[in-house]
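Hello Y.,

Per our agreement to keep a running log of every chain we model this quarter, I'm adding this entry. I've kept the format consistent with earlier entries: sequence first, then predicted structure.
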Amino acid sequence: MSHRLVVVGAGYAGLQAARRLAHKLRRSDVTVTLVNASDRFVERVRLHQLAAGQRRATVPLRQQLGGAPVRLVVGRVTAIDTAGRTVCVDTVPRVIGYDTLVYALGSRARLDDVPGAAEHAYAVADTEQATRLRHRVAELASGRTVAVVGAGLTGLETASELAESYPELRVRLFTAGDDVGAGLAPRARTHLRHALGRLGVSVHPRTLVTAVREDGLDTRDGASFAADTVVWTTGFQAPELARAAGLATDESGRMLVDATLRSISHPEVYAVGDAAAAVSVGGAPSRMSCQAALPMGRGVADVIAARLTGREPGPVRIGYIFTNISLGRRDGVVQFTHADDRPRRLVLTGRAAAAFKEAVVRSTVRSGPRGEPGSDESDF
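Predicted structure for the entry above:
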């Protein structure tokens, strides 16, 4: 009987893992099944563009599989039975058995941070949320206010994109930090501030939002701000499926794994991408990003292929090279980093940075024309 290898989730990490596993084990008695809620691959790093009314952020999964011998099941995973080694899906087949499972269900917007966020705020963590924001912003009259809460990469890119696409709107960016661009080199932070100013984005540092209302938001210091639309970009959290299945997880629901991305509680299960509490170069937890997801997807495929063919794999290396921030379509910041994510002095800005990021983003959805599918993918 064939070894049943099931990958749940076809984001950057899961898709990469499924394609690479199918390629590396094509001469072995192994079946690779990929389960995903949609038949399309979501370019999550483009969702802020979708929200700003620019372009679709999905491509067909079959196209992304590039002819790899992978069985695709379109359906939402509802539960994992680790005792029976099955995955429950809300479509036919209802139950999929596995011998090895790769858990790659990604993350969702963290909308339960403060009262009112889930009811009144918009997010850009998936296509449905980004499309909902797209429709909302398109109907706002000139002079209306959009408040973006959270000045991480998602918040910075969303605020910039909305301000450039809708110059008639007032865009405000709220951050609990002292400044925008924490973790960047001084030159990068300076360019970031200037770019936001040029786009007309007003930045509110040291402003902790404590509640979201239908017509605005409240802050810890007692101030209230009116807003016609609130966009919540304070971070992401893993789904509850791993914890509900009895797999060892951290406090945010990310699966606890060893250096080979194997569950510390269930050795037949692996986790990659945002759903994995992996350790990156330098010992820090891997951050939720495409840059970490792609090497995890490649690494877990190499680890599983090695073990299924009688070899002992080495640890998966999760390192960084740069941080990309788009500031609209014609500007950006590329902060080059050490492998442990510390910033280097080298920074790219302006149109060159925008072109650099666009090239990187395009590279993540190409399939290799020869040999291994996806062999030309960027790490980021």
